[in-house]
Amino acid sequence: MGRDVTRVRRSRGVRAAKAAVLAAPVVVLTTGCSVEEVLRFGWPVGVTPQATEMRLLWTWLAVASLVVGVIVWGLTAWTVAFHRKKGEGELPRQFQYSLPVEVISVVLPTIIVAGIFAYTVVVQNDVDKSIPNPDVKVDVTAFQWNWRFDYPDNPTGRPISTLGTSETIPLLVLPTDRSIEFTISSEDVIHSFFVPEFLFKRDVFPMPDKNDTDNTFVIDKIEREGAFVGRCAELCGSYHSAMNFEVRALNPQRYDQYLRLRTQNNPVSGAPNTAGEALAALNCGELCAPEATTTYPFSTKRTNRVASVRPNS
Ligand SMILES: [Cu+2]
User: Fold this and answer.
1) What is the whole-number distance in angstroms between the Cα of residue 78 and the centre of ligand 1?
2) H or E segment to which residue 137 belongs
3) Residue 1: its pLDDT value, please?
4) Are 163 and 272 in contact (CB under 8 A)?
5) Domains and CATH numbers, the chain
6) Residues 105-126 pLDDT 10s
């Protein structure tokens, strides 16, 4: 009698396990997500090799966690299904002081944590590296509440600078397929330089040397042309939320042309072309729009009682 009950329970348990195994792919497939999307586990799509490395770290961490999770859930379900208390006063078999179980439960997690640590260090070192001769150097200066971008050592040999104002979103024009070194510093409080598509942000300190902060970072390249919004990601005062900029990634030929145009005088103003004027002269459609396309200026009038609206909306 007792054996029959156990057999029925066991076959029910096996059926439930089979149903769970079959249901798992159905759940994944019916979401309509591609395999690549599923394996990203919610990680956004980046535009730099570093962003891809971080995504791979995230994917493998999620896969490792799921493997551990499935083992734990399986063992829990198996214990609940097949090792229940069978009668009054009768305890299921006890496993305390089992040397093999205790060794496995210490050694296995230690190996897993060591593996995660090592992989994280490898990725972090690459995201955080500096290289001796980057193709492009950009100085980023943050201030309440805007940005200035300078191009030191640019091939034109002339100073090129882009300054954001309350009326104009600063455009940080960069090349694709070239390594870029950013040197960041603040003129007042702590800000944070954040381009979501780089999947990277770093605090921008005033006097980085005295504050002993690492104020440079490198990306190996931007992998595609496009406009990407940039933000300040550190609460820095009243108009922190308005402190946006835009990265405009152009192919290297267009970028070189852009730098040359920045040093040439605008026929109307008689002054060197601004970022917007140089982009307009490049005439490459939406990609060369003279104003930011991913964000827009916010009104800084303290008496304003209505939200800023996107121009032409
Ligand atoms: Cu800020």
Assistant:
1) 53
2) strand 136-143
3) 47
4) no
5) 33-84+95-127 (no CATH), 136-288 (2.60.40.420)
6) 899 889 989 999 999 999 999 9
